[in-house]
Design a protein that fits this description.
Elements: H1 11-28, H2 35-42, H3 46-52, H4 56-80, H5 85-102, H6 104-111, H7 113-116, H8 119-145, H9 154-173, H10 185-196, H11 199-207
Helix pairs in contact: 1-2, 1-4, 1-6, 4-5, 4-8, 5-9, 5-10, 9-10
InterPro entries: DNA-bd_HTH_TetR-type_CS, Homeodomain-like_sf, HTH-type_TetR-like_transc_reg, HTH_TetR, Tet_transcr_reg_TetR-rel_C_sf
Keywords: DNA-binding, Repressor, Transcription, Transcription regulation
GO molecular function: DNA-binding transcription factor activity; transcription cis-regulatory region binding
Length: 216
């Protein structure tokens, strides 16, 4: 089953329904939330919601896809502006944490993928994620070709780049960490660079006059 196409819905109606769904999911939990809860919050009619989305599962899948697009579009826009490989890695890491801090409810929803995405929509969401990831690798391709970034199995890049930041964000979103996770951007960025850069790229970075290691 494909993720519901929301592009034909008027933007104000689409935004109202999905924003209401996010608020209701955050308050009541995804499983406990009902179509009527979303209807009351969005002020849309039951007929309108069922016509455009059909089921609560379809609403959740559409919201998840919208959140993924917003997240990845921010990341990819940053990489397009990067002047070198080191800057690209830093921008990816920083944008990841900045997006989460700016959109905590949506980030929590995306972290709850098993509850948010039904089996019927899992393949479509996986495809969407894969397409964005391929775009990111394509943007990084020049630095692979220049020998600045290590060539690894594709499944290793996300854990090496965002693994520690992801864990930090989970703790912050779950209330187990009070400090703003963005305070760790420089340290995490440096660690990600050391994991993904080639020996030649690391040597070049260390030899730059303006190079500074993050303070300990």
């Amino acid at each position: 089953m494909t993720t519901p196409d929301t592009t034909a819905i008027p933007l104000d109606r689409k935004s109202a329904i999905l924003a209401a769904a996010l608020a209701v999911f955050a308050e009541k939990g995804i499983e406990a939330a009902t179509i009527d809860d979303i209807r009351q919050r969005s002020l849309a009619s039951v007929g309108s919601i069922y016509h455009h989305f059909g089921t609560k599962e379809n609403i959740a899948a559409a919201l998840f896809a919208q959140g993924l697009d917003d997240y990845w579009n921010r990341l990819l826009a940053g990489v397009r502006e990067a002047g070198d490989a080191r800057a690209a890695i830093h921008i990816l890491l920083a944008t990841h944490l900045e997006w989460i801090v700016a959109r905590p409810e949506l980030a929590r929803f995306l972290f709850a993928r098993r509850q948010a995405v039904s089996p019927a929509h899992e393949q479509a969401i996986r495809q969407l994620t894969g397409d964005h990831f391929k775009t990111m690798l394509a943007l990084l391709k020049p630095w692979f070709q220049q020998g600045m970034l290590r060539r690894l199995a594709p499944e290793l890049y996300a854990p090496l780049l965002l693994g520690p930041a992801q864990e930090l964000a989970r703790n912050w979103l779950g209330g187990r960490l009070r400090d703003d996770p963005r305070a760790a951007i420089e340290e995490l960025s440096a660690a990600a660079w050391r994991s993904l850069a080639t020996d030649a790229a690391l040597a070049a970075t260390l030899s730059r006059p303006d190079h500074q290691e993050p303070s300990k």
